[in-house]
Amino acid sequence: MSMATASGSGSDDGVTVVLQGRITAYTAAPIWQSAVETLIQNPNRPIVVDASRLSYVDDVGIALLFDLIRRERPPDAKVEIRELAPNLAALVRGYNPKDFAAPARGQRRMGVLEHVGFATTEIFAYAKQMAGFLSACARAFRQALTNRGAVNWRDVLDVATEAGANAVPIVLLTGFLMGVIIAFEIGLVAQQFGAVIFVVNGVGVAMLRELGALMTAIVFAGRTGAAFAAQIGTQKVNEEVNAIYTFGLNPIHFLVLPRLVAAMLVVPLLSVLADIVGIFGGALVMATFDVGFLQFYHQLLGAVTTGDFVLGIVKAAVFGLTIAAVGCQRGLATGAGAVSVGLSATSAVVTSIVLIIVIDGLFAVLTS
Amino acid sequence: MTETQLRSDHSGAATGNGTPVISVRHVRMGYGSRVLLNDASFDVQRGEIMVILGGSGSGKSSLMKIIIGLYPPMAGDILIDGKSMVTGSQKEKAQLQRKLGVMYQSGALFGSLNVLENVRFPLDQFTDLSLPEKNLTARMLLHQVEMGYAESLMPGELSGGMLKRAGIARAMALGCDILLLDEPSAGLDPITAANLDRTILSLRKNLGFTFLVVTHELQSIFTIADRAIMLDPVSRSIIAEGKPTDLRERSTDPRVRQFFNRQPDAVEQKASS
């Protein structure tokens, strides 16, 4: 096997570029560069490309040869390839330089302003889609309430098991750590003012009203909202959703309702677990601040009300409904291909978390 | 020609001499304890279009995946240009795999890249060519498969036939001269399938490619194949090897005749009569 090279030599008549050896995808780069440089350095002299010593040429080599002859040069400074195998020469001549004159088009990159405009119209379009989807879900709910068998409870149980029971360990962990962190952070400050006992109030109210539901919802959005979008998105890509439509059935009944119902049931339950372990974590930390478990218990009873607990549960149910609705809607809006499924899952998580925080803010305003 | 082994020297006929480019030797394959194929042996010569035939479930695609080196065979060896794909080191295996261009059934284009970027992808990964050089090569490959007009489209915007042709262009990008195509005509309309057959024949004629094609499309088999082997799911073996027309007209094996004459199973014949 000979090394591939390109060498140029000049004379009064013109310049000769000798190509030799094997020109393949792996060896072509320096040869191509050298040959093109020779052409550029001799813009007004005829160029002869001597191909008699070529031993092997692959697709890249053919592209190289074509690139040399397709360049626009003065009539008396043309590039001519000599001693090229006839069938190879025919192949190179078979390409029309005009077909390759326009620069290759990559994926179009958007400018900043275009991005902003595009994103704004997308937000409006999404809001419209979501409104339509929620109204379809509401109709499906109404039908489910009036018609027995409209909700497949077996599916609800399956989704609840996967999204609820299997999420218990991660919810317990985050809830516990949240209680520990709040108690510790507030405790350090409160200690300076001799108000350590009121940390119990802070932990109790924060866990029951806010953090139990909020942390559970965020975990649920990352774990289950993304899964809903990916599952339904894959079904959309595989045309399973179309198959449901062509049976004259509504995919919202089959794919969305069980998930909505399951999410509305399991997120409050998970939230209760998060509340319990969060408060337990707070109690453990408070023990290090010389607040015993019994003292913690009595202080907690005086600090929180049933209303705080109920508010947390209601919020959790709304969060669950929101996460499931966003996940399912994103899944049903999936385009073609694996990339779209990934985008739907990402979008479901991001949208869910933003909506959870917005809804939490609304609850705070309404219940203040 | 002595040293001069230009790729385009092939005029269409297989050389049939020298080391086979693909040699399958006494291969046994399957999944778990389920054996799909026993003691399969055949060679593919340089410049040849060899077709693997067989009904659904006979292990055609699995055999192709073993030849590519995606899975090891249970027994036997696969030689690419005389070197073992099975016993070699991981590095040797990767070098052999780079000699093979593969088109998967669905085209397997990367969804986040447009057609030109898909075809350019192997050049981006393995060569030092500049972007304009890679773009020119990729565009010429797309012209070879009659897809020049679609270079800026995304895979999601392509039809089945376009996906397959773009898949072939990408398979050719690194200059490998052995192409393995998994069901190129499956699911295509007759015109698109015929166009694809023409593309395969023109690639062999112009660029001297060797093809190993998995298919059960009879029309395509008679159009492109120099030779064919037929797999049988019941006996789990190669039951026929030869030119497709010879197999159709001269084979004494009823399974081969049934396949080429497109006849239903005997039980169904009774039921329908």
Task: Briefly summarize what is shown.
Chain A is of the alpha/beta class.
How would you characterize the overall build of this protein?
The complex is a heterodimer of chains A (368) and B (273). Chain A is of the alpha/beta class and 368 residues long. Chain A folds into two domains: 5-100, Transcription Regulator spoIIAA (2-Layer Sandwich); 118-366, no CATH class. Helices cover 70% and strands 8% of the residues of chain A. Chain A contains twelve helices and four strands, in the order ββαβαβαααααααααα. Chain A has helices spanning 28-41, 59-70, 86-93, 112-146, 153-163, 168-192, 199-237, 240-246, 251-288, 293-303, 306-332, 338-366, and strands at 5-10, 15-23, 47-57, 79-82. A four-stranded mixed β-sheet of chain A has the order 1-2-3-4, with helices on one face. In chain A, helix 7 (199-237) crosses helix 10 (293-303) and helix 11 (306-332) runs antiparallel to helix 12. The longest helix of chain A has 39 residues, at 199-237. Chain A is elongated and about 105 Å long. The termini of chain A are far apart. By secondary structure, chain B is α/β, with parallel strands linked by helices. Chain B folds into two domains: 19-99 and 178-242, Rossmann fold, CATH 3.40.50.300; 106-176, no CATH class. Helices cover 37% and strands 22% of the residues of chain B. Chain B contains ten helices and ten strands. Chain B has helices at residues 60-68, 90-97, 115-126, 131-144, 160-172, 190-207, 218-224, 244-250, 254-260, 266-272; strands at 22-31, 34-44, 49-54, 75-80, 83-84, 100-103, 178-182, 210-214, 227-232, 237-242. Chain B has a six-stranded mixed β-sheet, sandwiched between helices. A four-stranded antiparallel β-sheet of chain B has the order 2-1-4-5, with helices on one face. In chain B, helix 4 (131-144) packs across helix 5 (160-172). Chain B is globular and about 55 Å long. Mean pLDDT of chain B is 83; it is low at 1-16 and 269-273. The interface between A and B is large, with 41 and 43 residues.
